[in-house]
Amino acid sequence: MAPYDKGARQRADDRVRHPNGTPAARSSKHRGFRAADPSQPRQKQRWDAEERRGRSAQGERPARPNWEPRDGGQRRDDRGARGFDRNDRGARGYDRDDRAPRRSDRDDRAPRRFERDDRAPRRDDRDDRAPRRFDRDDRAPRRFDRDERPQRRSFDRDDRAPRRFDRDDRAPRRFDRDDRAPRRFDRDDRAPRRDDRDDRAPRRFDRDDRAPRRFDRDDRAPRRDDRDDRAPRRFDRDERPQRRDDRAPRSFDRDDRAPRRFDRDDRPQRRDARDEARTGYVPADDVKLEKLQAEATIAADVEGVSFTDLGIGGNISRTLAEMGATSPFPIQAATIPDVLAGKDVLGRGRTGSGKTIAFGAPLVEKLMEHGGGTKRRMGRAPRALILAPTRELALQIDRTVQPIARSVGLFTTQIYGGVPYGRQEGALERGVDIIVGTPGRVQDLMNKGKLDLSEVVVSVLDEADHMCDLGFLEPVREILSATAEVTPHGDRAQKLLFSATLDAQVASLVSEFLHEPSVHEVAGEDQASSTIDHRVLVVEQRQKDQVLEELVAGDGKTIVFARTRAYAERLADQFEDAGIRATSLHGDLNQSRRTRNLQLLTSGRVNVLVATDVAARGIHVDDVSLVVQADAPDDYKAYLHRSGRTGRAGKQGTVVTLVPRGRRRKIEGILENAEIEADLVEAGPGDGIVAELAAR
DNA sequence: AAAAAAC
């Protein structure tokens, strides 16, 4: 056991205890708290000191003992000490707080235990099912605070493993789920809707309008002039104009490049890249930048086209409509016919352009064709696999794909790490049709003989370029190798690769696993058609934290990206100390906390999330108005993905990147590769520009 | 170099 665990235990021992012997809840909002509950959670943007002291029930930020007064003077020291406590408290302390009281709850429920077992599985179902809600309603009275329910769920989740076996009994229920699936989303995260938003027509159509503007990049010229007004703040003004000048032609270059993409010039390079990947050689940036040849779909061409026109069946089309996808977006219109035709497909659509449905809908349709009478056969092996680089993204994808699958009687299951095996293994034993997961656990279950991929005839890699990164590539290769080569009908099994930054980095996978793939992208999807305003602030290192605090103090939802887990945690801590409702998301948190913390942002209970790059790709949160990069991204791809968390659904977004003086060149290179124009402006605490950006 | 992804 790690040393800090001892510390946590010690602290727990120091804690006030309940009559039942468990540590007392520190918060009045906690179930385990016995005193009268004086305050309901507030929806205000800020907490005062007292609230902060007692808000542990909010979860994320570890609780500080109520009796431990805090003031500015103590802050630093406390923070230092907390750094340690934090992880413990975060994960353990917090959970423990939840559990202790729960156990008492359970004691109360002792007679109901059997019911409980039943419930556990439902919770799983809950992810997808309305009925559960009713269960929840029933439970509500038991809880002291409704606000705590989300915590419970996650908690329950951890416990679910053993209960899973009950699930078998519920099989019949599952079918009920089909009808309810769509509702589920309303409840939990609304995730599907979010996806819908990603895909919403308005946006795309806007793009249509914007596509032509692309050429107007010169329109930006006026902007630049505007910026010229800000000139005094800029760094190296001299260089800027030049960059911009280069860029205007660039957009045209892009068009010129189109023909290049059609050239099969990439192929030799792919082979090289593959060899390089095998030898552990990391391709240089310019190799990654190499555009894959792609067929560009023009948004205007898909106007008036329906999912049915593309070959999607009635049930699925109706479900898509219920989810808000009434008509296909360009990337969907581009890739769906080819997927239905049985081809391998590479799809590049920018962040929030509807990629999930672009592969999800035709995948389900395709399984219907393949499926025949094997549907719902107990213990049937999965026939489709969707892999994503993070657990949160896998969950989000499942929230979109599951209702589509259910609409035609197919089942999905999530296979990802950080949660008990039992439930996942149980689902596999019962039989599922579509696996949505992350590479590690999929590989794990495969090796344990619990997951048979030999009948998988459609495999999808979301964020495919990232899945080719060191550390991902080998597991992914192993997994893909375990899938079927041909369908029962003798057709070639399909592989679909999608990403907003799909490039030659996937070359090795393509050459090894894909057969004459069709490559699609959408015309006009460049930064000039984006709704995102990019800014770069050049700050003194020692002033950075203060500038960050000022930036996130605004009212809008904000995601802050930090390079390391420790820094993310520290920043979240600092923001909380400043009275800003903030939480964190990174790999040092256990999965229930990760899920919960993300939920805190989506639900609006906090409006600042400090994350590592775990949140950079694919994660959709409604109405994020500001993305702050506390540390510059690694490369232009990271920049594009991080910034893609805002400006979604056609809304305005702002991305602010902080860089120390010494890193100016690096960020300029990144911006150039990303084909983004942004001024570098010197800024410090209290500066007008900081306040202006914070106000967005 | 860090982060992610299995335990």
UniProtKB/TrEMBL annotation:
GO terms for molecular function: helicase activity. Residues 1-17, 45-54, 61-278 have a biased composition (Basic and acidic residues). Signal peptide: none annotated. Keywords: ATP-binding, Helicase, Hydrolase, Nucleotide-binding. InterPro entries: DEAD/DEAH_box_helicase_dom, DEAD/DEAH_RhlB, DEAD_box_RNA_helicase, Helicase_ATP-bd, Helicase_C-like, P-loop_NTPase, RNA_helicase_DEAD_Q_motif. PROSITE patterns: HELICASE_ATP_BIND_1, HELICASE_CTER, Q_MOTIF. Residues 336-520 form the Helicase ATP-binding domain. Residues 305-333 form the DEAD-box RNA helicase Q domain. It comes from the Bacteria. A motif (Q motif) lies at residues 305-333. Residues 1-282 are annotated as: Disordered. Belongs to the DEAD box helicase family. This is DEAD/DEAH box helicase. The lineage of its organism: Bacteria, Bacillati, Actinomycetota, Actinomycetes, Micrococcales.
